[in-house]
Amino acid sequence: MIDVVHYAKKRYTTKVFDPSKKISDEQIQQLKSLAQYSASSVNSQPWHFVLAATDEGKQLIAQATEEFAFNTPKILNASHVLVLCRKTDITDEYLNQLLEQEQQDGRFDDEQGKQMVAGARAFFTGLHVNELHDAPAWMEKQVYLALGNLLLGASLLDIDSCPIEGFDAAKLNQVLGLTEQGYSATVVLALGYHAEDDFNAKLPKSRLSQEVIFSEI
Ligand SMILES: Cc1cc2nc3c(=O)[nH]c(=O)nc-3n(C[C@H](O)[C@H](O)[C@H](O)COP(=O)(O)O)c2cc1C
User: Which regions of the chain does DSSP assign to beta strands (E)?
Assistant: First the structure.
């Protein structure tokens, strides 16, 4: 049996990356699949991922860390940097695109099944757009699920990572032209291999105890 807790404990936020070490194309493909296969509410998949593998790409992303200078070297020295974005809107056209993909993937036995899924998705989407007025936050929650998948998956692949919220999202949207494409930068993930002098690699993990964070009923 795989010791999944070992991988959860082994992963840690890498503060100093070794710029000479690069993730293989095969492992990058596995990470892309982990993001792709992440779960989302009503299979809404309201995300887009921008992957920077080149120095030029990483420099563009680093422009959004001017006021978060402690994060700049992480972005520049990581092997790859992923910008996890949410969609800005969920349009009827997009809902149709999802439905047609599910049809192609063989999810429906008949038209009635297809329409049930369409109805459920329209209900939840409508709830967040028209009643709760929290569609952006709802979409960001889905994006963070993909982040969680990637963090654990990277550990399984022996890849180090640093999730990054310390960046200027408006600036990154502008630099990468995300707004025009209907996306908004939500969180950044630097991926690669830690440097010898990464102080955080040696620190013990710290978490609140299970007695504090769990109640049993
Ligand atoms: C959503 C998110 C955003 C974070 N943003 C940053 C960041 O901007 N810079 C940084 O150095 N660490 C960042 N962290 C790392 C956290 O500080 C770290 O996950 C936490 O202290 C737990 O430590 P561990 O990841 O080593 O287990 C972020 C973590 C998460 C999950």
Answer: 47-52, 80-87, 160-164, 183-192
Residue whose entry in the numeric block shows the structure tokens 């038209």: 111
Q: Is the CB of 12 under 6 A from ligand 1?
A: yes
Tens-binned pLDDT, residue by residue, of the chain (217 aa): 999 999 999 999 999 999 999 999 999 999 999 999 999 999 999 999 999 999 999 999 999 999 999 999 999 999 999 999 999 999 999 999 999 999 999 999 999 999 999 999 999 999 999 999 999 999 999 999 999 999 999 999 999 999 999 999 999 999 999 999 999 999 999 999 999 999 999 999 999 999 999 999 9
Q: Which of 15, 58, 87, 140 is catalytic?
A: 15
- pTM for this one? 0.98
How many angstroms is it from 74 CA to the middle of ligand 1? 12
User: How remote is the CA of residue 40 from the centroid of ligand 1, in Å?
Assistant: 22
- CA 164, 169, 175, 180 dihedral sign is positive
CATH top-level class of 10-88+136-196: alpha beta
Domain spans, the chain: 10-88+136-196
- What is the H or E stretch that residue 211 is in? helix 210-213
